Amino acid sequence: MIEPSQRSAARVVGVVYLVAMATSIFAEMVARAPLIVRGDAMQTAINIAASERLFRIGSAIHLLTFAGDAILAVALYVVLRPVNRDVALLAMSWRLVDCAILAVNMLNDFVVLQLVSGAEYLRTFDTKQLQALAHLFYRVEGAGFQIGFVFLGLGSTMFSYLWLRSRYIPRALAGWGVFASFVLAFVTLTILVFPRVGAVLGLTYMAPMFFYEVGLGLWLLFKGIREA
Fold first, then answer.
1. Of 69, 75, 67, 64, whose CA–CA distance to 13 is shortest?
2. Which residues contact 197 (CB under 8 A, 6 or more apart)?
3. Cα separation of 87 and 161, whole Å?
4. Which of 38, 178, 217, 226 is positioned for an S-S bond with 17, CB 3.0–4.6 A?
5. In angstroms, rounded to a whole number, what is the distance separating the alpha carbons of residues 49 and 115?
6. pLDDT tens-digit profile of 10-32?
7. What is the chain's alpha carbon radius of gyration, rounded to the nearest angstrom?
8. Whether the predicted model's global pTM rises above the 0.90 cut
């Protein structure tokens, strides 16, 4: 029998999936994308310095998203613990590691802001050096996201496997989750070893995960979980 706590946690999972997807897209596409000029460190630094508040808003929204992801990990554990406690615990641990990595990774944002601030103690560097350093730390942040996404994909693969076994949701949706999550983890790890793969694929390999998380979020929010 499904316990009331599982049903409540499932609703929380649905809400957090949808809200976190919306906030992460806003942070990247609205607060970040207009400021970043690929291959042009100078213009990127100028844009960030001119729109510091917008850049900070993007960082704050990312942090709130990662906090929501921690709630998501615990709620998923509550829902899927009866299926296999050990696997659910491993999946939650991987997702919490992902949250921790991504949260600490935001420190790079504030290093970038310091480098473009024009502070007195930075006068020992010329403008081009500061712009290059700002671009470097922004690139390091991108690598930090990739490291976090490996753990995100691993944790999501385990949770999707438990969804598949539980039959709480349609098996097609759960199966798609296993596929999408594994693709995210495997391709991201591949890009860390072979960076040119990322240049070819762009963000396309994340599309299956987008449709899975949105689809699962909508299902849990409006349908909930069902008896196996």
1. 75
2. 187, 190, 191
3. 9
4. 217
5. 9
6. 999 999 999 999 999 999 899 88
7. 20
8. yes
Spatial neighbors of 138 by CB under 8 A, at least 6 apart, are: 36, 44, 108, 112
DSSP string, 110-133: HHHHHHTS--GGGTTS-HHHHHHH
**pLDDT tier for residue 36 given thresholds of 50, 70 and 90:** confident
Determine the Cα–Cα distance for residues 29 and 151; give it in Å rounded to an integer: 23
Closest by Cα among 201, 167, 165, 163 to 184? 201
Query: For position 165, what pLDDT does the model report?
Result: 95
CA atoms within 13 A on the CB side of 29: 7
Tokens describing residue 153:
């994909």
In angstroms, the CA 11 to CA 178 distance is: 21
Structure tokens at 197: 């793969």
Report d(CA 187, CA 157) in Å as an integer. 13
The one-character DSSP state at 50 is H
Nearest Cα to 95, choosing from 139, 157, 53? 157
Q: Hey, is 52 helix, strand or coil?
A: helix
Separation of alpha carbons 153 and 189, rounded Å: 10
Quick one: 50 exposed, middle or buried, by C-beta within 10 A (0-12, 13-18, 19+)? exposed
